[in-house]
Write a structure and sequence with these properties.
With 162 residues, this protein is of the alpha/beta class. Helix content is 36%, strand content 22%.
Amino acid sequence: MTRVLVLAAGNEMRGDDAAGPVLASYVERLAVPGVRTVFDFQFQVEHAVDVAVADLALFVDAHVSQPRPVVFSSLDACATPLPGTHALSPAEVLGVARQLGLAVPPVFVLSVAGSTFELGADMSAATRQACRQAEALLAALLATPTVGAWQAHVLESGALEA
């Protein structure tokens, strides 16, 4: 059985940043065998170990200023985090894994457009709608957890890299 990691970041108290936890909760409710969900407020160095034990990994987060409500992309490049950095990008998490000599599985990113990230703000209607679109995509991805199937979704979305 393929071991899939869904690693979501965000904060339910910061408006559209709640997309990550909302989608992590959705994945948990699906209860797909072989799927492990990890949620945190931000991606961190320690998540490199979580990624390394998966066969397929998916980062989920909200992003400001993206071209479409939902963007699904593959992640090939690895960046080295700056010394002393606590919050990392998905690419930097992969960079940490490589620095530690850990295996890095195929990795994908699912991002949801957001515009309101203020403390105490509610999630915007546009981001709620984008989360519903993302849920449909997550259900399709987790129904066929293979690199080929996920790459086909990347090609359909028109996003080739994160």
